[in-house]
Amino acid sequence: MAGIELQMVAMKKINSHSGVACAIVWPQATRGTLVQRKPMVWTQQLQSVDWGHASVCALVGYALGCFTSGYYLVRARTGNDIRNVDSGNVGARNVSRVLGRAGFLLTVLGDGGKGALAVLAAHHFTSNS
């Protein structure tokens, strides 16, 4: 990047109980000026986390990952288990072999929607504004 110089910063222990500390150096807009932020020990970072909120996010993420739209779509339409049909894969291509183009599109939209929902949730919960 033009006009910005980065330098390496030596890391120091905060005290004998803390272990490793992190110091972040942020380049400023003016050339050669660096600002060093106060280091935060990893134990302090863990204490600043809202663990109830984090556990709910982890459980919702796990539930989203467990939901396979192709499996439930084929099960609802035909009553068959897609894992026992053709290639055994629960993806859109195997679903299209059973349900045609409509099944393919619904599976792609369902799986894409899961991904979009996860990204939107991550953006919402990590936003600083």
Itemize the secondary structure elements and their pairings.
Elements: E1 21-22, E2 25-27, E3 34-36, E4 40-41, H1 42-47, H2 51-66, H3 69-78, H4 92-99, H5 101-126
Antiparallel strand pairs: 1-4, 2-3
Helix pairs in contact: 3-4, 3-5, 4-5
Keywords:
129 residues, mainly alpha, two-stranded antiparallel sheet, 8% strand, disordered N terminus
> Class by helix and strand content?
mainly alpha
Q: Please compute the radius of gyration using only Cα atoms.
A: 24 Å
Multimer state: single chain
Q: How many angstroms separate the termini? A: 27 Å
- Helical residue percent? 40-55%
- Order of helical and strand elements: EEEEHHHHH
Average pLDDT for all residues: 76
Q: Give the overall shape, derived from the CA principal axes.
A: elongated
What is the strand tally? 4
Tally of helical runs: 5
Could you list the spans in which at least 5 consecutive residues all have pLDDT below 50? 1-26
Beta-strand portion reads 5-15%
Instruction: Summarize the biggest pleated sheet.
Output: 2 strands, antiparallel
Brief digest:
The chain has 129 residues and is mainly α. The protein has five helices and four strands; from the N terminus they run E-E-E-E-H-H-H-H-H.
Explain this structure.
- The protein has 129 residues and is mainly α.
- 51% of the residues lie in helices and 8% in strands.
- The chain has helices at residues 42-47, 51-66, 69-78, 92-99, 101-126, and strands at residues 21-22, 25-27, 34-36, 40-41.
- α3 (69-78) runs parallel beside α4 (92-99), α3 packs antiparallel against α5 (101-126) and α4 (92-99) runs antiparallel to α5 (101-126).
- It is elongated.
